[in-house]
Amino acid sequence: MELRINRRALIGLGVAAALTASSFALLRTDAGTASSHREAPMIAGDPRNDNTDVYAFVSPDRADTVTLLANWIPFQEPNGGPNFYPFDTRSRYNIKIDNDGDARPDITYQWTFRDEDRRGTSTFLYNNGPVTSLDDENLLFRQRYTLKRITRHGVRTLVSNGVVAPSDVGPASMPDYATLREQAVHGLSGGGKAFAGQADEAFFLDLRVFDLLYGGNLSEVGQDTTKGYNVNSLAVQVPAADLALRGDVRRNPVIGVWSTTDKWSPRGYTQVSRLGNPLVNEVVSPAGLKDAFNALPPAKDADVAALVKRVTDPELPKLLEAVYGIKAPATPRADLVEIFLTGVAKGNGPIAADLNSQTLNKDAGKLRPAEMLRLNMTVPPAKDPNRLGVLAGDLQGFPNGRRLGDDVVDIELQALAGAATSGKLVAALTDKVDHNDKPILRSFPYIPLPSGVAVNQR
């Protein structure tokens, strides 16, 4: 199928959404910024607080556990010294879980960081010799962290003096970075694990979607824009029962997951980043909502008419029709409400499947629609994962959680074009970047080791 641009239709297409006064009041732009790879105006100047991706999946090698992983600080050039890429010591980094469907966090895993800097006025170097362990005296700058588990019953410290895997300075400085990664995996009581440190940017895509949707004729595809860059990752692996409502995975198999960053200011901590499903704020939200969306707690999503409208009447299908002639599905899009706001269940909308809505939890109350990544923890790991996830019959893949190998760009393009209800894929509708350039690791935290080659040398 050859797709050609219809420039006249594109010029005539109205794509701006008006904000009502009440909606704008709920979306206070002074309170927050955005996440997902610098896609909002304000967060572009604050990369240490920019939350780029969230992953949630049943651990492939420990099927009774769930791995939650979130990334920050996008587009890290491997040779970005001398300061490299530390976490912000004045921020709180959170992964939040809603297991009863009220759109409020029932469990929060929260990381805070502190610097250990021995350079003083004597050197500019990150290290002054080869670093072979996390406590190596040659490592002059390191970060330590505290990890807490917060519930309505109280706060429990899981890790009090964890060491962050450092930025990978290079092979002369860190000849065996895999060992440093391994040492940075911290065991938790009850059989869990935690990690904080640098990693390869596992999100793969061609970002030229913003040039009139891949050049207007799909000629600008096949280039992994994030190839070679690194991120900072935070991850926990815990028994599924630790996340399930009332600790009962069989009765209450579904959780909702999102991450946030709380930044310190004279007014106290303020949420400046929020991320659940990939690309929501990047592609679904218009420019006028991007900064404000990430200050909003999920419990208020359903109150913002302008935000809900961007799901029920999204912009991208109209652009696909204008540019490529792919007919946009009829609105309102109840299928997208299921994918992004309620989870997929037979009682929620037109997608005829019980998959990942908290309405499937027998002990849950009334569901409040909210944007978050939802995972059914009873779906076992796929023996042969398919990059297109649920659309290809692989029920462990996105939008049922998100694995590191899920091709979320292609999945969301197809879903926005109507594939979740029609069952039909548009073969040409792809960015032709099907996988990351580095393989997923077989053990926690699974995300590949950081790249050590300058991006402009690739």
UniProtKB/TrEMBL annotation:
Keywords: Signal. Residues 1-27 form the signal peptide. This is DUF4331 domain-containing protein. It comes from Nonomuraea montanisoli.
